[in-house]
């Protein structure tokens, strides 16, 4: 209902007092979960109580929790930057989502999306939800979406594989999973979550050509400027489940990003101190001089040239996935921050990194 009110406010059909900013766009916080339980690896888990606390916090703070398809529609129309929107997503389709999560979602009557790996469901039926359970989730109002068949690192090319063989393998990994989901549950929206949140321009091209909207796991809010082949999500499990810090992220705003260099998050082993540049559509709602970026324990000041900021890392990045987060306060909503996250995956000498 709040979504409808927001739209009517924008169209001037209701006498709303909410300020509406030129060039503004709603920001959506997408939260990412895995296990829901207290007997699973803590690093990828929230308890059912923690999940309930997150939903209660969102509802108490007037966030609309919407489905991904509703979010996509919202972002196609003008909406005020003051909108408070959140999406709940769960990767992997563990059985504990059915056992421990579904009762919580039902209690609070909120939508959520589960990204599943059909081949892994077949290979380890004791670990993953089965189709009947997913059908029950679907009947409740959950969206069941694609996490590939294999849960492989999509950007990794095999040593004996040509680029076109790699493309064929990745395309099949995504499309075969989608076919199995559609056959079991009826045609589903083409939504993908990259395993480990990893992608590169060639992966994005496959995804875009196949008509998918894809989610990664670098942090940051989602707005109409976001790359629809790499939508950020805030991890919300384990140490990230703490609402004292999670609240700041949920409240964050997305920058109007139009271009990012380098295009790939993947770094060769010797690219230990990369730099990156981000071009924005405008900087109207914050003071660029106040932006700070955080890489490991170091704080970095970006350099600005027009609407483009560049960050040069001084400390070497570790092998594996890492993120550089940049934040700056909003002028119009002083209690909210813009949040941009640059993901990296630095390879070891063999071109690989840990899960
Ligand atoms: Zn996963």
From TrEMBL:
Residues annotated as signal peptide: 1-22
Domain of life: Bacteria
Record localization: Secreted
GO biological process assignments: carbohydrate metabolic process
Pfam families: Polysacc_deac_1
The keyword Lyase is assigned to this record: no
GO CC terms of this entry: extracellular region
Record-linked Gene3D superfamilies: Glycoside hydrolase/deacetylase (3.20.20.370)
UniProtKB keywords: Signal
Gene Ontology MF: a single term: hydrolase activity, acting on carbon-nitrogen (but not peptide) bonds
NodB homology domain segment(s): 84-300
The name this protein goes by in its record: Peptidoglycan/xylan/chitin deacetylase (PgdA/CDA1 family)
Source organism: Pseudidiomarina maritima
């Amino acid at each position: 209902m709040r979504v409808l009110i927001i739209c009517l406010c924008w169209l001037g059909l209701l006498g709303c007092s909410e300020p509406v900013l030129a060039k503004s766009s709603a920001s959506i916080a997408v939260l990412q979960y895995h296990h829901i339980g207290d007997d699973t690896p803590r690093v990828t888990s929230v308890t059912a109580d923690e999940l309930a606390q997150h939903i209660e916090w969102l509802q108490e703070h007037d966030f609309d929790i919407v489905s991904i398809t509703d979010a996509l529609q919202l972002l196609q129309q003008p909406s005020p930057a003051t909108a408070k929107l959140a999406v709940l997503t769960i990767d992997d389709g563990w059985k504990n989502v059915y056992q421990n999560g579904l009762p919580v979602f039902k209690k609070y009557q909120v939508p959520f999306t589960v990204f599943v790996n059909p081949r892994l469901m077949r290979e380890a039926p004791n670990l993953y939800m089965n189709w009947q359970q997913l059908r029950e989730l679907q009947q409740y109002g959950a969206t069941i979406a694609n996490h590939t068949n294999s849960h492989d690192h999509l950007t990794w090319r095999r040593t004996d594989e040509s680029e076109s063989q790699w493309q064929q393998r990745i395309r099949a990994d995504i499309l075969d999973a989608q076919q199995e989901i559609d056959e079991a549950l009826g045609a589903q929206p083409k939504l993908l979550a990259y395993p480990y949140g990893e992608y590169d321009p060639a992966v994005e091209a496959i995804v875009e050509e196949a008509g998918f909207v894809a989610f990664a796991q670098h942090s940051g809010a989602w707005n109409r400027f976001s790359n629809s082949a790499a939508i950020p999500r805030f991890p919300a499990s384990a140490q990230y489940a703490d609402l004292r810090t999670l609240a700041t992220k949920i409240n964050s705003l997305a920058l109007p990003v139009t271009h990012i260099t380098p295009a790939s998050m993947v770094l060769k082993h010797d690219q230990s101190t990369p730099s990156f540049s981000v071009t924005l559509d405008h900087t109207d709602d914050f003071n660029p001089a106040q932006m700070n970026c955080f890489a490991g324990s170091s704080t970095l000041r970006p350099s600005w040239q027009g609407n483009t900021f560049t960050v040069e890392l001084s400390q070497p990045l570790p092998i594996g996935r890492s993120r550089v987060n940049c934040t700056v306060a909003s002028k119009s909503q002083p209690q909210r921050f813009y949040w941009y996250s640059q993901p990296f995956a630095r390879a070891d000498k063999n071109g690989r990194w840990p899960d």
